[in-house]
Every structure is written in structure tokens, then in C-alpha cells.
Amino acid sequence: MVKVIPCLDVKDGRVVKGVKFVNLKDAGDPAEIAGYYSKAGADEIVFLDISATVEGRKTRFDWVKRVAQKVSVPFVVGGGIGGLEDMAELFRLGVSKVSINTAAVKKPELIREASAKFGRERVVVAIDGRRNLSGGPRFEVVVRSGEEATGLDAVEWARQAEALGAGEILLTSKDADGTRSGYDLEMTRAVADGVTIPVTASGGAGKLEHFYEAVVIGHASGVLGASVFHFGEISIPEVKKFLKDKGIEVKEVR
Question: Which of 83, 102, 158, 209 could form a disulfide with 143 if both were Cys (CB 3.0 to 4.6 A apart)?
């Protein structure tokens, strides 16, 4: 069953959305938006404190708490999570899963520790990837909100994350992010086919066909959108109906 997931990129307490991780525009209050998506049929909601790592701080728990009080669907939080204590506090606030990105790259053992302590089903490894035109890995992992290249191959890193205990992968194409020109299907498929755990496609959704392509061509288990949902261009029920009409199993909107 394919999940349809809106993503809240949060900066300075507001939901924002940019293109290729820059030129951010305000999209509203995270608690209000999350509450709306929860009622609109979202299968999960992803909340990313996008400036936490770059600013060298932890996730803003007060922001998370406000959102957690508004949602009745699984709630995933990432950004600024540095260790098991941070994760424990987020779970205490009502978060369903944690998403780790830069911290996992810097300390891969954190994936194993988190999986052992909380269960692999609660550990998401987020991978931001870009096409590498200057040699090295074809799909390169970038960290610190896309600012830092790692030299890691995205497919190999996904396999390593799974081996260490990740329960799923959240894969974002930096190149496609916010462009609304479609997901990076080649990268999505390469990662999805390289692991046995679910992979959620992120970055580039602009029309209904893109969500379908991510599943059929990209082999994604989940499809994540941001700007098209935030700015009212496509609704979650529309995505689900489109996928269902194409023969893809989705959870019905109540």
C-alpha cells in the first residue's frame, strides 16, 4: 500500500518551501497545516526542522509539541537529532518515527543504537542525493541541508543504513526539490531496488502523474509532496484517487 505524505519544512517556526533547498517562501503555521493534512487523509506527516543542523542546535521541541497535539496520523520528525536522548524526548512528545540524516552520516553507529533501543520501525534514515557531474558517485549524498558533499554513493549508503537497522529510507533529490518537474526517477529506482525496506520519494512533485511515476517507475513505497500541497495546487485526496484509479493500492480517505 502506497503512502501519500505531506512534508513540513520548518524554519523560524514557520513552514517554508524553496527550490533546491534555497529561496524559501513562507507557507504558514506548522500546527495549523499539520492539523489540516491529518484530517485531509495524509498517511503520515513529516516535519523537518531544516535549519537545526546548519545552526548547530537541536530540534525545537516546542515546535514539535504544537504539531503533535494537532495530528492523529503517524508523525515523523527530523532535523537536529543528534543522539538517543533527543529521540527519546521526541517519542515522549508523541512522535511516531525519527528521521536522521547528517547525524547518521557522521556517526553511522547511531542507526544501530537507535534501532536497538526503539525498534527499527521507528528509525528513518533520510538521504539527500544529487547527481554528480564531476566524477565520483553518480548519485552523491549531501548533508547539512545540502550544503556539504560527502563523496558517498546514495545507493551504497542506503544499503549500509538498512544493514545497520534503518526501517525505511526518505530519499530527496536536491536537484529536483521544489522544481515541480518530477521526482528523480532514476535515483529513486536505484535506491529502492538496492534495499528491501520501504523508500519514500521526495523532491519534485508537480502534478498527479509525478506521484504515479514515482511508484511505477521509481518503485517508491511512499510519495512525499510539499509545495503542491501547501499552495493548494493538488490535494491529498486527489493524489489518492489518481493512484487508485491507476490500480495502485492506497489507504482510503475517510
Answer: 102
Phi first, then psi, for residue 66 (nearest 5°) are -60, -40
* β strands within 132-253, DSSP E: 139-143, 148-153, 168-173, 199-202, 222-225
Q: Measuring CA to CA, which residue among 49, 96, 62, 59 is closest to residue 76?
A: 96
Summarised one tens digit per residue, pLDDT across range 183-234 is: 999 999 999 999 999 999 999 999 999 999 999 999 999 999 999 999 999 9
Cβ of 237: how many Cβ atoms within 10 Å? 13
Residue pair 5/162 in contact (Cβ under 8 Å)? The answer is no
Query: 170 - beta bridge partners?
Result: 126, 200
Residues belonging to the active site: 9, 128
For residues 125 and 226, what is the distance between their CA atoms, to the nearest angstrom? 19
Look at residue 150 and give its three-state secondary structure. strand
| Measured distance CA(199)–CA(184) in Å, rounded | 13
Q: Where are the beta strands (DSSP E) in the chain?
A: 3-11, 14-19, 22-28, 45-49, 75-78, 97-100, 123-131, 139-143, 148-153, 168-173, 199-202, 222-225
Helices 30-40 & 61-68 angle (0-180, nearest 10): 30
Identify the CATH class of 3-245. Answer: alpha beta
Rg over alpha carbons for the chain, rounded to the nearest Å, is 16
How many whole angstroms separate alpha carbon 205 and alpha carbon 208? 8
Q: Is-contact 203 227, C-beta < 8 A?
A: no
